[in-house]
Specification:
The protein is of the alpha/beta class and about 350 residues long. The chain is built from 12 helices and 16 strands. The chain has a domain of about 220 residues: Rossmann fold (3-Layer(aba) Sandwich), CATH 3.40.50.12710.
């Protein structure tokens, strides 16, 4: 069996004792162990997110929120970030918001004690939350989630000769393998998507759907807006996207459970429909298009003029954030704003 320490051994005992486990459980428990025990970001970690690449990213987010806040009458408001990493995005966004007169209370939803300690150093006045249910209910919420949805556990359904089944994680010999569960799952697949070749995989993310539904409800009642940025797709599609990253390199999804970051592409098409069903306004764009519409080109020029010695570094960061061969096309942006309210900037 490959690495992964105690969690791999635990999974093996569970599977041998009780049978295969759903992909959702394997992913959820692996990521819970992974994030609870480390700061995974940066050169010494496993991956680098957009806020760590350049201050420009967080600044564009902050200006987007401040613009909506200003056009909504400048109410007393809260800034909420889901999965705030090292607090870098929040720090840069809050600085940009303050330049426009917005100085909200800060609320961070973070389940990892290791990351909470890092965030406390960057944001001394933040209030921490384990879930959405304890967020303030007395005013507008301006919510940001960057690379949060992709780490939520997904379910995988696979088309077999007997119809659709849930995809499971089994143990064969000395290796984890995928297998098809025994129970029919045809009713869980939209009728228009059921006729697929054998072996086709469809992914769903109940936790992401529930998150969007609750946030849409909160915005509808309290006001505010939400901005989700993640790698994903804007049109419905089939295919498996579960992947693992360790030390900035892709690795096998079974190589080291609990010791690597497991993620999947975000189905923005489905999540947008959920928010629309709740009556909220939804807009989507690629990250590159949105950042350029928000003014990142001008910001890069200003930073380069202020610090000529960093011009090459700033240009490289700009290209990485906006380039179609880099993050600009792979990453998408989805905004949720109140029904009949102001449309957020940066969307065509």
């Amino acid at each position: 069996m490959s690495g992964g320490g105690d969690l791999a051994a635990t999974f093996r005992r569970l599977i041998e004792g009780h049978g295969p486990m759903p992909v959702s459980r394997y992913m959820g428990e692996s990521n819970a162990r992974y994030y609870a025990s480390r700061d995974p970001l940066g050169a010494g970690g496993d991956f680098t997110t957009a806020p760590e690449i350049s201050q420009m990213f967080g600044e564009m987010v902050g200006l987007w929120l401040a613009d909506l806040w200003s056009r909504s009458g400048k109410p007393d408001a809260s800034y909420v970030e889901l999965g705030p990493g090292r607090g870098t995005l929040a720090r840069d966004a809050l600085r940009a918001m303050a330049s426009q007169g917005l100085m909200p209370k800060v609320h961070l939803m973070e389940g990892s004690e290791a990351l909470r300690q890092v965030q406390s150093g960057a944001l001394t006045a933040a209030t921490f939350h384990d879930g959405l249910d304890t967020l303030p209910e007395d005013g507008p919420l301006y919510i940001v989630a960057n690379e949060f949805l992709d780490a939520l556990p997904i379910r995988q359904l696979v088309m077999t000769e007997r119809g659709w089944r849930e995809r499971m994680v089994a143990f064969d010999g000395d290796q984890f393998v995928f297998s098809a569960g025994p129970s029919p799952m045809d009713d869980a697949v939209p009728e228009g998507r059921r006729a697929q070749p054998i072996g086709t995989v469809i992914e769903t993310c109940p936790a992401a759907a529930a998150t969007i539904e609750e946030i849409a409800r909160r915005i509808d009642i309290q006001g505010g807006a939400a901005l989700f940025i993640d790698y994903g797709y804007l049109e419905p599609r089939c295919g498996e996207t579960l992947q693992a990253v360790k030390a900035h390199e892709k690795t096998g999804v079974f190589d080291a459970p609990g010791e690597m970051d497991l993620t999947a592409l975000v189905d923005f098409a489905t999540l947008a429909e959920i928010a629309k069903r709740e009556g909220l306004a939804v807009a989507t764009a690629t990250q590159g298009d949105w950042l350029r519409a928000m003014g990142i080109d001008l910001r890069a020029q200003a930073l380069s003029q202020r610090s000529p010695e960093r011009a090459e570094e700033i240009a490289a960061a700009h290209a990485r954030l906006t380039g179609t061969e880099a993050m600009g096309e792979l990453f998408k942006v989805m905004a949720i704003t109140p029904r009949g309210g102001q449309r957020g900037a940066g969307f065509g």
